[in-house]
Design goal:
Layout: H1 2-11, E1 13-20, H2 33-46, E2 51-58, H3 68-78, E3 84-87, H4 90-93, H5 97-110, E4 114-117, E5 122-123, H6 132-159, E6 171-174, E7 177-183, H7 185-199, H8 204-213, H9 219-225, H10 244-252, E8 260-262, E9 265-266, E10 276-277, E11 284-286, H11 296-305, E12 326-328, E13 335-339, E14 347-351, E15 367-368, H12 369-389, H13 391-439, H14 445-474, H15 479-492, H16 501-507, E16 508-513, E17 517-519, E18 522-531, E19 551-555, E20 558-564
Parallel strand pairs: 1-2, 1-3, 3-4, 12-16, 18-20
Antiparallel strand pairs: 4-5, 6-7, 8-11, 9-10, 13-14, 14-15, 16-18, 17-18, 19-20
Length: about 575
């Protein structure tokens, strides 16, 4: 009896499935979700169904079958909850010819489901409709045609400089011109704070924790609190819980400089909606289109420092402003921060690769923090004095050195590029000869396949290296701009009296630390400061810019003095 009642309920139950998406390009109200429901309720009741279940998908393409409402429909059928499915037309089920065909010709018959497509006059209880497969094919062609037209339209708009995506956190669409972005001051203040904290030496996790503690709404909750409908899942995560990935994304967006960058992602086909990152040469970039949230100089500095601001701590949790900036002059490894166990006031760095600590570097490269502070502050003061008192000479020195560095770097990269291109041509010739030997019978098919595969794999790796190197060479010209940024930054610290994290991040790329050596009975430690954008700078000898005199008693009876390292070629 119970089973009979269950079967009766199933026989009286029909599923109404409605779908609407932008891909359909439909006009009028007849295809709206509400009007589809009204039509299907009316027809289902006329056909005797008293229990109706509705599933819907709004704004999801019919090309994909991975739709929440559609998946609920499939699950309900597998659980034997209904005996019929009603749709307005076959395209509502989907615009994928193969998948819809499997559904109507295999899945529905296997589960004894009656299919009614009202506008297409299809009712499987009245017999098969030979035109159904053709309709499914036309529905897919329609989706492909719409996708093609949309791609062409987007390409025209994107290449004309019209923003193709939604404005990032910190911007809003201009209500008077939706093609233009304007600054959202409330959110922009948070963006500026994130950039400022980065220059002050805070990592992304520290920034995220600070924003969370200060109860700053995350971007998705901020938009929703202001009635802005943006894609993204609202999870159980608290509205003020920031994570480092959100901070990292904000720090990476060049749009904050006022630029429009189109075609950052692409999809492989109209059936695959997954977005893939595009190569830089395939993007369209338009500079200074809207008002910047972050000035370009600040953005450039942050990009230079991203990945380099590594705040190493001691076992006591203490951090140091030089952490992540010091490298060993002999092996190139980072120097690690420590303090003296017997006298915690003595803080120092040494090579992380020292062989005494199971590394390979022959020397400790020990350097005291108080020694570093005096040397670096003295060199920064000397640099700012050079910039303020001998402005013309300073600009010439910086630009000249920057150009020398660029030329040397460019020549090295061009030489490497020529070598890779020569090897690429050589492999082409080898494969041609292998093919000729194979055709002539001198080389078996198996041997030819094995050898040609090896060379093709090498050529594939070469192609990746060539592409990366060509991109680097193409970006060489951008470094000229960073020279101007460096000059401006140096002038900002003319009156500096004490080092701080931001000063180091804005001015210094890294510092090479040499092992202290005994010269004429005195221990001398050489340091070479590499500045952002321009590398190491050698002050002209004829100018009265004396080197900082620093002498530190590192331990009883041992004093170390400072000496600048010779300028690298």
């Amino acid at each position: 009896m119970k089973q009979s009642r269950s079967k009766k309920n199933r026989d009286n139950t029909a599923i109404l499935y409605v779908r609407l998406s932008r891909d359909d390009n439909l006009e009028g109200d007849s295809y709206s979700i509400q009007n589809q429901k009204k039509l299907l309720i009316k027809v289902a009741k006329e056909k005797g169904y008293t229990n109706l279940i509705t599933f819907s998908d709004d704004g999801i393409s019919g090309v994909t079958m991975n739709r929440p409402g559609f998946q609920q429909l499939i699950e309900a059928i597998e659980k034997k909850q209904a005996s019929a499915v009603f749709v307005k037309d076959m395209s509502r089920l989907g615009r994928n010819y193969i998948e819809v065909g499997k559904l109507t010709e295999e899945f529905f018959p296997e589960h004894e489901i009656r299919l009614v497509a009202v506008s297409d006059s299809i009712d499987t209880d009245e017999g098969e409709n030979e035109l159904t497969p053709i309709r499914n094919l036309f529905n897919e062609w329609y989706a492909r045609d719409i996708s093609k037209k949309r791609r062409i339209s987007n390409k025209i708009k994107g290449n004309a400089g019209e923003p193709m995506g939604q404005p990032p956190y910190g911007y809003l669409k201009d209500p008077n011109n939706p093609r233009r972005w304007i600054i959202d001051e409330e959110a922009a203040a948070v963006v500026r704070r994130i950039y400022s904290m980065t220059l002050d030496g805070f990592g992304t996790e520290q920034i995220a924790a600070t924003l969370s503690e200060d109860h700053i709404l995350t971007p998705i909750y901020y938009w929703r609190s202001h009635g802005i409908n943006r894609a993204g899942k609202v999870t159980e995560r608290p509205p003020y819980k920031w994570n480092s990935s959100s901070v990292t994304k904000i720090l990476s967006l060049r749009e904050y400089c006022g630029d429009v960058i189109n075609f950052k992602t692409y999809s492989k086909s109209y059936k695959n909606k997954k977005r893939l990152p595009n190569d830089e040469e395939n993007m369209s970039v338009f500079k200074d289109v809207h008002e910047p949230v972050i000035d370009r100089a600040t953005w450039e500095k942050v990009q230079q420092k991203r990945g380099k601001i590594r705040r190493r701590r001691t076992n006591e949790g203490e951090k140091n402003i030089f952490s992540g900036l010091l490298v060993c002059a002999d092996c190139g490894h980072n120097l690690h921060y420590h303090f003296n166990q017997g006298n915690p006031d003595i803080k120092y760095f040494n090579c992380s690769n020292y062989k005494g600590n199971r590394g390979t570097c022959p020397s400790t490269h020990y350097v005291r923090v108080d020694f570093l502070e005096q040397v670096v502050l003295g060199e920064v003061r000397r640099l700012t004095r050079f910039a303020s008192k001998y402005e013309d000479e300073f600009v010439k020195a910086v630009i000249g050195h920057s150009e020398q560095t660029l030329v040397a770097d460019g020549q090295r990269k061009q030489k490497e590029l020529n070598s890779l291109l020569a090897r690429d041509r050589e492999i082409d010739n080898v494969i041609d000869h292998l093919y000729e030997d194979n055709v002539a019978g001198k080389l078996s098919d198996e041997r030819f396949a094995k050898m040609s595969k090896r060379y093709e794999e090498e050529q594939s790796e070469l192609a990746k290296l060539l592409k990366a190197l060509q991109t680097e060479i193409g970006q060489q010209g951008n470094k000229v701009v960073t020279t101007d940024i460096f000059i401006t930054t140096v002038r900002k610290y003319t009156r500096a009296r004490k080092l701080n994290q931001r000063m180091l991040n804005e001015l210094i790329d890294y510092i090479e630390v040499h092992q202290a050596e005994k010269v004429d009975g005195m221990h001398v430690q050489k340091l070479k400061i590499h500045y952002n954008c321009v590398g190491s700078i050698e002050m002209p000898d004829m100018l009265p810019l004396p080197e900082p005199e620093v002498l530190i008693q590192t331990r009883k009876g041992v004093a170390v003095s400072y000496s600048p390292s010779q300028k690298a070629i």
